[in-house]
TrEMBL record:
Belongs to the TMEM19 family. Keywords: Membrane, Transmembrane, Transmembrane helix. This is Protein VTE6, chloroplastic. It comes from Anisodus tanguticus. PANTHER family: TRANSMEMBRANE PROTEIN 19. The lineage of its organism: Eukaryota, Viridiplantae, Streptophyta, Embryophyta, Tracheophyta. It is found in: Membrane. The chain crosses the membrane at residues 87-113, 119-139, 160-180. It holds the Pfam family DUF92.
C-alpha cells in the first residue's frame, strides 16, 4: 500500500518541488525614502550622491575664489583686476565710504580707484585710500563746533563728485600718462612721483584747513598777515600749518614704504606740497569768489592746487637729476 502510494503519479511533483523564489517580492519592496524623498539625506545611497554633488560644488566654488585671487594679484595690473579689486574693497568698506562721501561721490571715487589700480596697482590704491581716511578723519574733527561757527564742510563733511574730481584731477592725469606709457620708461617714475605729490598736496591742504578751523588760536591772512576769523579763504594758522606738514610727511612715507618713491622723492613731495598750498592760500585770499572770479570756487582751486604740487615735484626731480 505504501509502495503503491509512492509510485503514484504525484511522486514526480514531489521530487521536482523547489523553494519559492522571493526576488519578485524583494524587488518591489518600497522603502520610506521612495515615498518621502525629503528623508533622502538619511538614506546612505542618496547621501552618497548628495556628498558627491556637494563636493563638486565646493571644488567649483574654491576654483572661482582661486581664480579671483589670481586676477586681483595680476602683475602688471589689468582692467579686469582693477575692476574686481575695487568692487571687493568698496563693498567691504562701504560704511566708511558713506561717512565721507555722497552717493555720487562714491561713484566718482570708484572710478578713481579703478584707474589708480590699473596704473599703479595696490600700492597706488593704498596711497589714495590713506589720503581718504586721514582727510575724512580731519574733516570730522570738532564738526559740531565748525557747524556752529559756519565753517564746516557741507553735508556733514561728505564730499561730492566735484570735490573728488577736483582733488584727484592731477592724479588722474598721471594715471593716464602712465597707462599709455607717455614718455617711455624714462618718464615712468616721474608720473608716479607726480601722482604721490598731488595727493600729498591735497591731504596737506585738507588737514591744515580742518585742523586750523578746529584748533587754530590765531588765523592770519597770507596776503596782509592781518588776523581774520577761522575759515576765511586764504587764512592760515600755526596749528593748521604744522598739521598739514605732518600729514604730507605721513602720506609721502606711505609712498616710500610701498615702493612708489625713494627718500629724496618723498622729501620732494613734501616740499612741493607746502609750496603749492601756500600758492593756494594766495589764490584764496586774493582771487577766490571775488568780483570777476566767481567761477573760481573750491573745486577749481583744488585742481590748481594739486596740479601745482605735481608740476613742482616733477621740476624739482628733473633739476636734481640734471645736477
Amino acid at each position: 500500500m505504501a509502495f503503491s502510494t509512492l509510485s503514484s503519479p504525484a511522486l514526480p511533483l514531489l521530487f521536482h518541488y523547489q523553494k519559492p523564489k522571493l526576488s519578485f517580492l524583494t524587488s518591489n519592496i518600497q522603502t520610506p525614502f521612495d515615498y518621502f524623498p525629503q528623508l533622502s539625506t538619511l538614506n546612505p545611497k542618496h547621501h552618497h550622491k548628495m556628498s558627491r554633488t556637494s563636493s563638486i560644488k565646493v571644488v567649483s566654488d574654491l576654483g572661482i575664489v582661486e581664480r579671483a585671487i589670481q586676477l586681483v594679484q595680476s602683475s602688471p595690473p589689468t582692467w579686469q583686476s582693477a575692476l574686481l579689486s575695487n568692487i571687493i574693497i568698496f563693498t567691504v568698506g562701504s560704511p566708511l565710504l558713506v561717512s565721507g562721501l555722497s552717493v555720487s561721490g562714491i561713484g566718482a571715487a570708484f572710478l578713481l580707484g579703478t584707474l589708480t589700480w590699473r596704473a599703479f596697482g595696490f600700492s597706488g590704491f593704498l596711497l589714495v585710500a590713506t589720503y581718504f581716511v586721514i582727510g575724512t578723519a580731519a574733516t570730522k574733527v570738532k564738526m559740531a563746533q565748525k557747524e556752529a561757527q559756519g565753517v564746516a564742510e557741507k553735508r556733514k563733511g561728505r564730499r561730492g563728485p566735484g570735490s573728488v574730481i577736483g582733488s584727484s584731477a592731477a592724479g588722474c592725469v598721471c594715471v593716464f600718462l602712465s597707462i599709455n606709457g607717455v614718455g617711455g620708461e624714462a618718464f615712468t617714475r616721474l608720473w608716479v612721483l607726480a601722482f604721490v605729490a598731488s595727493f600729498c598736496t591735497k591731504l596737506s591742504d585738507t588737514v591744515s584747513s580742518e585742523i586750523g578751523k578746529a584748533y587754530g588760536k590765531t588765523t592770519y591772512l597770507v596776503t596782509t598777515f592781518k588776523v581774520v576769523p577761522r575759515g576765511t579763504e586764504g587764512a592760515v594758522s600755526a596749528e593748521g600749518t604744522l598739521a598739514g606738514l605732518l600729514a604730507s610727511v605721513l602720506l609721502a612715507s606711505v609712498g616710500y614704504l610701498t615702493g612708489q618713491t625713494n627718500v629724496p622723492g618723498a622729501a620732494i613731495c613734501v616740499i612741493a606740497a607746502q609750496i603749492a598750498n601756500f600758492g593756494e592760500s594766495l589764490i584764496g585770499a586774493s582771487l577766490q569768489e571775488k568780483e570777476g572770479f566767481r567761477w573760481l570756487n573750491n573745486d577749481v582751486v583744488n585742481v590748481i592746487n594739486v596740479s601745482l604740487g605735481s608740476i613742482l615735484a616733477v621740476l624739482m626731480q628733473k633739476i636734481i637729476l640734471q645736477s
